[in-house]
Design a protein that fits this description.
The complex is a heterodimer. Chain A is mainly alpha-helical. Chain A has eleven helices and no strands. In chain A, helix 6 crosses helix 11 and helix 8 crosses helix 9. Chain B folds into two domains: 71 residues, no CATH class; 44 residues. Chain B has seven helices and no strands. Chain B is extended, with a radius of gyration of 20 Å. At the A-B interface, helix 2, helix 3, helix 4, helix 5 and helix 6 of A face helix 1, helix 2, helix 3, helix 4 and helix 5 of B.
């Protein structure tokens, strides 16, 4: 009986369906807890899905590459999802017309602070060159950041991890920080979250209000394009 | 809904093609996003502003973006393959991530509020 069960387990663990199912189930559970806890920033569903999945893989000895054979079917949707951001961005263009003078200054400043601030602090605290290049594009969305990292001599996979960590940090610490600084305007909160914490900050911003989310999408898109054009030029 | 998902993929693919053809540093999906944005803008300027975003596109977009967080999970689990590098560089990387993210959010939010208040 035990042998039968372990045979079945060995078989299932090799199937790509395992990684795919595990990812979606872990995310649904994390998302349910997140909503049950009134979307408390520390209950961030990306953070807890990653912790639970990494824990399960570590405990069962399944290598990341085998997990990713299944999980890639979720990962590949990041491409069309990035293109789909044009829709909230298009809607936000109306507000861009009203508040362009604020965004025109706040956004580039935020982008420069996020990128060069990270580089400066990493160098100051003695990080190696490859880590410095990997951390430079961490504030923009994963596919853009990995492309930039490769171009300036970083490790794209390390960048992916730093991007996720940045997004989680931004989503967890950003809203309370903005409230502390008395930034209550949904436009300002969205721009700040999208520019500094890409898609994860944008997902968090959509939890506050559609207006906050639209501005975060706008900021994330503009920050991605700005960083992709500027960083390889100044490196 | 399927034709609109296909449209998103076509824009992504066109973005990849433009990136390779011109050797741009901007990734394909971002060029695809700008392309779709231009297409929506052109459609709106054509005098169809009231129905500028087609309903099917609206549906597939909210399905994808409604669970945007899920799409970051597989790459995020990749943290387990970099645990040793992350451990040796934990202090500089943690300081860099936390410091720059807080500073960027504060700078962006406060500047926006200051500039919005002006008439």
């Amino acid at each position: 009986m035990i042998d039968d069960l372990s045979d079945i387990w060995v078989y299932l663990a090799r199937d790509p369906l395992f990684g795919l199912t595990l990812t979606i189930v872990a995310y649904l559970a994390a998302d349910r807890v997140y909503r049950r806890l009134a979307m408390h920033p520390l209950a961030n569903p990306v953070l807890w899905s990653v912790i639970v999945l990494a824990g399960v893989l570590w405990a069962t000895g399944i290598p990341y590459d085998r997990y990713f054979e299944g999980a890639q079917f979720v990962h590949v949707l990041l491409g069309p999802a990035t293109v789909a951001l044009a829709v909230p961005l298009y809607r936000a263009l109306g507000t861009l017309r009203q508040s362009w003078h604020g965004i025109a200054l706040a956004l580039p400043v935020s982008v420069v602070v996020a990128s060069l601030g990270a580089v400066g602090l990493a160098v100051l605290f003695g990080a190696e060159d490859v880590s410095v290049a990997s951390v430079a594009p961490k504030a923009v969305t994963t596919p853009i950041a990995m492309g930039i990292s490769e171009r300036i001599g970083g490790l794209p996979s390390l960048t992916a991890v730093l991007v996720i960590l940045t997004g989680i940090l931004g989503a967890v610490l950003g809203p309370p920080l903005l409230t502390l600084l008395k930034v209550r305007d949904p436009k300002a909160r969205g721009i700040a979250l999208g520019a500094a914490a890409h898609g994860i900050g944008t997902a968090r911003a959509f939890n506050e209000s559609p207006e906050t989310g639209a501005h975060a999408s706008l900021a994330m898109g503009l920050a991605g394009v700005l960083t992709a054009v500027l960083l390889p030029l100044v490196w | 809904m399927l034709p609109w998902l296909a449209l998103l993929l076509v824009f992504q693919l066109a973005g990849e093609a433009v990136r390779h053809a011109l050797g741009l540093p901007v990734p394909g999906p971002v060029i695809g996003m700008l392309g779709l944005l231009l297409a929506l803008g052109a459609r709106g300027a054509w005098g169809r502003a009231a129905e500028a975003v087609p309903e099917g596109l609206e549906r597939v977009t909210s399905a994808l973006l409604g669970h945007l967080s899920l799409l970051f999970v597989p790459a995020g689990v990749g943290v387990m393959t970099h645990l040793s590098l992350l451990a040796t560089e934990a202090v500089p990387l943690a300081v860099a991530l936390i410091g720059s993210t807080l500073a960027a959010i504060a700078a962006g939010g406060v500047l926006m509020v200051r500039l919005e208040r002006r008439p």
